[in-house]
Amino acid sequence: MEYVKYEKKGFVGILTINREKALNALNSQVLTELEQTVDSISVEDTRCLIITGAGEKSFVAGADISEMSTLTKAEGKAFGEKGNTVFRKIEKLPIPVIAAVNGFALGGGCELSLSCDIRIASENAVFAQPETGLGITPGFGGTQRLARTIGIGKAKEMIYTCSKVKADEALSLGLVNAVYPSGQLMEECLKLAEKIARNAPIAVRAAKKAINDGMQVDIDSAIAIEAEQFGGCFETEDQKNAMTAFCEKRKPEPFVNK
Ligand code: DAK
């Protein structure tokens, strides 16, 4: 792959958008490679995924403006559908996904981070949805996921004004979970991913599904979704191991994802 790098550290996958010269902007090829990589991730041996951008300046500076500038209406729609398909796949990936936001997260970059479960930022991170200043609306889910993440009023303000939001403000808005100096970002994201990976993988995946699916429906349906996921964890080896260990006042054996 030319623009996406994928490596594994134990149970953690690290996906890097690798187009540093264009500040990791998303052109069609990047989106295709991103989709292929996400499709190839197996929950058998991967318990958490980190997505980041190459270099120290930019996570993703948006969709590729030069490629988009000449699109026809039909091509624009197809480009939007392609991005939306990939971002939805990331959101629906059974394992938790952490965005390690190492700089600019603009337009499609902010939207990519919003399709992840957790955003951790470096001190130089900058978030914005600059689309209305380019004559378009956010097109990779920004109008929906930003409002669901930081609330409707602040999302509207960001989208209508195109204002840039720095890391400290992103933290106070609840757009990111934590902020670290650039040099520590990946180390801290790995620590978080490894902490997640130490818990029972089937239970973590069930919790993600319950939260994601439950947030889209009324509370009664959501509780039913949770009950279904909760029930599914019983009779797994990991549940037996952990609860037996608790009853015997000892630590459980490492979880085996069964
Ligand atoms: N696209 C293409 N190239 C980009 C880019 C981008 N988004 N961002 C940066 N680059 C390229 C620059 O053109 C430059 O290339 P060369 O000139 O060296 O060849 C290189 O990266 C370095 O950028 P700068 O020289 O500009 O670096 P600076 O440090 O001076 O400035 C910057 C950094 C991030 C502030 C600046 O590059 C910038 O403002 N970039 C554009 C940011 C932006 O507006 N992003 C949002 C894009 S809009 C939809 C589907 C999708 C979308 C919308 C609708 N539908 C289907 C409806 C998504 C839209 C977007 O994401």
Q: What can you see in these coordinates?
A:
The protein is of the alpha/beta class and 258 residues long. It has two domains: 4-197, 2-enoyl-CoA Hydratase, Chain A, domain 1 (Alpha-Beta Complex), CATH 3.90.226.10; 201-247, Lyase 2-enoyl-coa Hydratase, Chain  A, domain 2, CATH 1.10.12.10. It has eleven helices and ten strands. The strands form two sheets. A six-stranded mixed sheet has the order 1-2-3-5-7-10, with helices on both faces. It has a four-stranded mixed sheet with strand order 4-6-8-9. Strand 1 and strand 2 form a beta hairpin. It is globular and about 65 Å long. It starts with a strand and ends in an 11-residue tail after the last helix. The protein binds 4-(N,N-dimethylamino)cinnamoyl-COA. 4-(N,N-dimethylamino)cinnamoyl-COA (DAK) binds at residues 22-23, 25, 61-66, 76, 79-80, 83, 104, 106-108, 130-131, 134, 136-140. 4-(N,N-dimethylamino)cinnamoyl-COA is lined by residues 22-23, 25, 61-66, 76, 79-80, 83, 104, 106-108, 130-131, 134, 136-140.
